[in-house]
Amino acid sequence: MAKKTMTVVKNLDIERYMGRWYEIASFPSFFQPRNGVNTRATYTLNNDGTVHVLNETWSDGKRDYIEGTAYKADPASDEAKLKVKFYVPPFLPIFPVVGDYWVLYIDDDYQYAVIGQPSRKYLWILSRKTQIDEEVYNQLVEKAKEEGYDVSKLHKTPQADPPPESETGPKDTKGIWWIKSLFGK
């Protein structure tokens, strides 16, 4: 059975979308630390209209992070289909890794978002707060299910309240855990 075309948010207000989002749940993948907690993304608008991306996660008390740039895949389109480009530090010469970032759902107040990509192998449920109501969570899961995702693979991400400060703890800048997802493997 052919899966229906994914519905992507139209006319995303990129300025309202900026700021910090906490990962409430995602599809686990081999590259991300199994014990990764407090995973979050912080988006900042650049002067040229692109977005600076900072992804962070903590495992064994250590902060992993990677930075990149997001931009519209097709500037003429009103759909929220973004490309995210990370420059991979551990490899020389430095080369960019590009992945798809499709905003499948966002609520009117820009408090919750569902992010996917065309292969449906990756899914993220994001929130402005570290915890969300079970009812809201279930509604977001239902949205993903409607878009053809196998939501049985969703894994909730533990989030501390209050969240950790970025500057604390030893750093691990390899960022490998995030990169591999972008290949969509």
TrEMBL record:
InterPro entries in the record: Calycin, Lipocalin_ApoD, Lipocalin_bac, Lipocalin_Blc-like_dom, Lipocalin_CS, Lipocln_cytosolic_FA-bd_dom
Gene Ontology cellular component list: cytoplasm
Location of region: Disordered: 151-175
Pfam families (UniProt xref): Lipocalin_2
Any one GO biological process: response to reactive oxygen species
Coiled coil: none
Gene3D superfamilies noted in UniProt: 2.40.128.20
Lipocalin/cytosolic fatty-acid binding domain mapped to chain residues: 12-159
PANTHER family membership: APOLIPOPROTEIN D, OS02G0612900 PROTEIN
Family classification: Belongs to the calycin superfamily. Lipocalin family.
Protein name: Lipocalin/cytosolic fatty-acid binding domain-containing protein
